[in-house]
Amino acid sequence: MSRRDRGSVWRFLLPVGFLAFTAATVAAVLFKDWMPPVASEHGKGVDGMITYILCAAGLIFVAGHLLLAKFIFTSGADDAPAYKPIGNKAEMLFTIGPTIFILLISEIGVLFIGNPIWGQVFKEDPEDFQIEVIAKQFEWIAHYPGRDGKFGPFRMEKYDEVDNIAALWKKDKESRDDLVVRGKLILPAGKACQIRIKSFDVLHSFNIPAFRTKQDAVPGIYTKTRFVATTPGDYEIACAEICGVNHYKMKAKVQVLPLEKYMKWLEEEPGFFE
Amino acid sequence: MALTHSHGTDAAHGHDHPSGFWSKYIFSFDHKVIGVQYLILACIMGLIGAGLSVWFRTQLAWPGKAGMSPENYVMAVTMHGTIMIFFVVSLSLSSGLGNFCIPLQIGARDMAYPLLNMLSFWTIVPGAAIMVASFFVEGGGAAGGWTSYPPLSALPKAAPGSGTGQTLWLLAMAIFVVSFTLGGLNYVATILNLRARGMTLMRMPITIWTYFISAVLGLLSFPALTAAAIMLLLDRHGGTSFFLPSKLILSGQLQTNTGGTPLLFQHLFWFLGHPEVYILVLPAVGIAFDVLAANARRPVMGYKASVFALWAIAFLGMIVWGHHMFISGMNPYLGKYFSISTLIITAPFALLGVCLLGTLWRARIRFNTPMLFALGLISAVGTGGIGGLFLATATADLHFHDTYFVVGHFHLMIGVTSLMGTFAGIYYWFPKMFGRTMNETLGKLHFVGTMVGTFVVFTVQHFQGMGGMTRRYYEYVNEYVKPAAALNPLVTIFAFIAFGSQLIFLVNFFWSMFAGAKASKNPWEATTLEWTAESPAGHGNWNEPPVVRGDPYRYGEGADGKGWKLQTDA
Amino acid sequence: MKTMVSAGVSLVLAVLLMAGCRTSARSMGAPEAAPGQPGGAAGSVHEIADGATLSGTVKFEGDAPRVRKNSAEADGVCHKAHPEGVPSESMLVGKDGGLANVVVWLKGGVNGTFEAPKTPALLNQEGCVYKPHVVTLMVGQTLEIKNSDGTAHNVHTLSKLNPEMNFAQPAPGSENKTFGSPEIFKVKCDIHGWMSAVVGVFKHPFFAVSDADGKFEIKGLPDGEYVVEAWHEKLGKQEGKVKISGGAAQTLDFSFSDEE
Q1: What is the pLDDT of residue C42?
Q2: Which CATH number, 3.40.50.720, 2.40.30.60, 1.20.1070.10, 1.20.210.10, labels domain B285-518?
Q3: Are A239 and A247 in contact (CB under 8 A)?
Q4: Is the model's pLDDT at B63 over the cut of 80?
Q5: Could you give the ipTM of this predicted complex?
Q6: Which chain C residues are within 8 Å of A134, Cβ to Cβ?
Q7: How far is CA C49 from CA B95, B307, C206, C242, C247, in A?
Q8: Residues of chain C neighbouring B138 (CB-CB closer than 8 A)
């Protein structure tokens, strides 16, 4: 008897707790837009994918917690009659049903929504603007191929942290018109940019949250990512892979210009050895 | 072997023990003593690991007010992760409770290799000591993140802790792996060979299945980490370049390495790292099944389905490690493959989840402390698992990777789920360990604090991650992240609540050991074998080894109308 | 049991030993490089007020190179101080081809020991630039490293003979450091890669830095024959010889060129 009374507090408290938690989480999803404003074409797709999972997973989350609350609330007390089997059919339905449902919604999501967008991010198109992004502890440097569309080769011995971070050599003719911008990535709006990323030292991650772009910078290889910025304005790069003490300070500005302005900037800016 | 024979009495206090205090409590061969030793070591390490989190959470909430430099911060997050995963959750759940309950639940007198068992505990002690000692060397402890990706962890000058601290870290990890592998071998051998008469595989409690599967997983996957750790040590001290490519320029200085690739380390690391998640989560789920059945007074739903799901999870868990590396620079086609394969795991995992939930259907719930933790675990594993759907999808991972969404997700899984399972297990088996029960009032206080604290912390972190808030940042200086970072004080306050509740647990644990209410042989009226032994069970566990005559969860049965039947009952 | 304990103990000892070895290896493994030791045995402390003056000009042969500017937009505080970008100070050529920021010091021929000044030398981080670009001081003299900006910096010394320092410095902040070995080395900020400075540490007080027009002056030289070195961060170093007798002033000019 006393055991039953003590239990009854929890029989009420736990369901209320679980339901409050569920309601608060659902409200937080519904009533506030947590994601940074999106500013790239594939970013909208990424957001679509996330919304899809939010709806599907949210359904499971809510249903699961409702059931949990219900089972606890309606459970028999200690002096209730002993458990009687539910029956194989009902149990099968109860277990296999949700299993297949979850498998289907997640695989459909990744196959039909997710992977096509993933493909966009790694597409290679010679028509795209090529930009190199260099990562080092704890800075981002943008390197543009210039009017000839060719990156100057990397000349180790010319490397200078202050004056020649991209390690270009003035005798390489591809290097003359290259542009090197420290701490700022200038981009055109509405035109696909193919970014090749390299790192001089440790792992970094090229992350523009507003673009939903994230790609590790790996020393020794070029990694690639691609995006189409949609809206002119200022955004940020924030390093997303721990790279040392000042990881948190490793940021840079992203400036998206209207296409004409960008082309004008490319034309007028003197090359690295001009 | 000799010992299991000569101490087959249920002597609780060892008056008849010739070797006295040292061999009974310190260098004991008894699996129960070793289990408790693991638990106590985990408590000590837990205080350090969780204390670190309190320190850096203070910094995150009120930057500059915690007396913490950026150097301290990266070290604290690295060591928090390492200590919590390998020296708290692994030690308490896998090693501690595993050692305690495996022989008891399968009806064995001890582990298959009691000496090896003692050795594996006394191997981990210097490992833990070295890990703690690394705080005090020049440059401090390792600071390359718990994943310790090279080149950051390979080049001594890349981070302050990448000098001696990182070497000690690797050494401690190697020792951990040795100990854990010895333990795993013991589990597998014990479960396969020492089951009591009548204890067929399909009569084993689900807890035993989860320990068995996690031991197999550990044996298969830990060698990859060992290899990675040795290669990294060689890169650091032997002049090799497994993980270091040519032409590295660190701080303007050219490094001499040639020809390696950092991605290799990531593959090796996650080949262990992902199964490790299941190694930590599955036993917690297993314990929850046992505790749920005992306190819902009904058999678990879908025993066979659950065992099948466990094996499926284990198998799939071995081939999906790449979902930690979607944006690491590996081939994008692999990203698609790992997405699809990872999402297949949702099926067995969902099956396991509904079996947990279904075990409450038509239940007669006894709301004692272990049961509360088991119920909390259902919510934690569900909520955490749902976060996994986002992260397993490569496309969504573009936004979530290395943000607080990941932090919230894996803390719910290997933090909250594992520890809820551990706590459920400790409260549940405490009477069998010490012959006393833990204080119920303090236990329930502990539950409420843990539940409220951790759920607020880690759920809010999911939303911070949606806001793009990146991990391992000392301070949030970016503009875009300001709205998400504004929630940091809230998270920190609830983290304090969660931490404070663990102090209640520690008090309760050590106090009840000596002053708890005396417990009977079977205080929960549970059905599995351990409840046929005395409380506390003596060395050798039983006078007469039990003989199993039925399934593990015989609730709702019983001719005499009491509604349950021991596994040994006819 | 005993074997277990001793095994554990020896394991811990081995670890400590390894730790010890690493530290000593680091301090011993520094390559020789850098400036030579000023010669001469220990003698009396010289009074440098009454000695000869050595002066001269450092010139750059050829066209003045373009002063590169680095965008500071990554950090709002730095950008505010330098909206047009931060000009590089690594190669500053003044009027008549005078080369600034060259460290001129007596490499050989100095005898005696000299007491370090009590006043600290200052390396100030202001507007995300090191001021001054070249700071010189004596062994044992305090170097005050100050952050006057509203943003965190990271001070990283690329020294070989002195222990390498690498520490984050929140704003505002100030750290006092001293150096035990004579050496000229660069200092950089890992957060703001354009920030670079040169620190010269010497055993004696006979050193100078060329000004914007390339002029330098070293005072108080006792009589003797000296080897003088001019050191530039990008153009390398050059040596000259000078003989001082009877306290008469001497001049010595250097000229650098870019091989390319």
Answers
A1: 36
A2: 1.20.210.10
A3: yes
A4: yes
A5: 0.95
A6: none
A7: 75, 91, 12, 19, 11
A8: 23
